[in-house]
Amino acid sequence: MIAGLSLLVASLSLVLPPSRSAGPGRPEFDHTTVHVRDLEKSGDFYEKVIGLEKIAEPFKDGRHIWFRAGAHEQLHVAGGASEAQRQDIDVHFAFRVASLDAFIAHLDEMHVKYRSFAGDGKVTLRPDGVRQTYLQDPDGYWIEVNEDRF
Questions:
Q1: The pLDDT of residue 149
Q2: Quick check: 34 and 75 in contact, CB under 8 A?
Q3: Which neighbouring-strand residues pair with 145?
Q4: Contact residues for 32 (Cβ-Cβ < 8 A; gap 6+)
Q5: Three-state DSSP class for 65?
Q6: Which segments of 10-52 are extended strands (E)?
Q7: Which of 78, 76, 73 is nearest to 27 (CA)?
Q8: By C-alpha distance, which of 92, 50, 42, 89 is closest to 68?
Q9: CATH number of the domain at 28-147, please?
Q10: What CA–CA distance (Å, rounded) separates 114 from 79?
Q11: What is the mean pLDDT of residues 128-132?
Q12: In 3-state terms, what secondary structure has residue 110?
C-alpha cells in the first residue's frame, strides 16, 4: 500500500505544476521606471522613436504612462521630475530589435542622434559579434539598442 501511494505521489509530481509557495523562486525582471520632466514628450519618444506599445496603467492620475517592453516586462514613465538626468553611458537600459539597420534608418528619419558606446562612431561591435547603438531620451537616460542575436 505504501509503495502504491509513493508511486501515485511521484506520478502526480510529474503532472502537476510546481508549487509557487515552496520558496521564493528566482526573480525575473518586471519593469523599470524613468522619472521625466515632460510626460507627453517622453511618452511620444518611447512610442514613436523606440516603438513601444502603450498599455493600461492603474493609477489614472495623469502622471504615468506604461509601455510593454517584452513579453512580461514593462517601462513605466513617470512625470514630475524637476531636472533632466545626466548620467554616464555605463548607466543604461537596453532593447533588442530584429534589424539594427532598420532601427538606425528609423532614427535617421526621426532626426534622433545616436552613437557608439565610445562616441567614435554610430555602431559598436561587441566582442561576441552583436552590433549595438546608443541614444538618449529627452531627459538624458541612456538607451542601448542591440540587434537580436545571442
A1: 84
A2: yes
A3: 95, 133
A4: 75, 76, 93
A5: strand
A6: 31-36
A7: 73
A8: 50
A9: 3.10.180.10
A10: 24
A11: 96
A12: coil
- Specify the pTM: 0.83
C-alpha separations of 86 from 90, 92, 143 in Å: 12, 11, 13
3-class secondary structure, 54:
strand
pLDDT tens for residues 99-110? 999 999 999 999
| Residue pair 126/117 in contact by the 8 Å Cβ criterion | no
Question: What DSSP element (H or E) covers 132?
Answer: strand 131-136
User: Do the Cβ atoms of 139 and 85 come closer than 8 Å?
Assistant: yes
User: Does the pLDDT value for residue 43 go beyond 50?
Assistant: yes
> Cell digits for 132?
549595438
**Residue 135 near residue 143 (C-beta atoms within 8 A):** yes
Q: Say if residues 62 and 21 touch (Cβ distance below 8 Å).
A: no
Comparing CA positions, the residue from 42, 31, 108 lying closest to residue 78 is 42
Which of the residue ranges 9-13, 54-58, 61-65, 68-72 would you say has the lowest mean pLDDT? 9-13
Summarize the confidence of residues 91-116 as an average pLDDT. 98
**Assigned C-alpha cell, 74:** 514593462
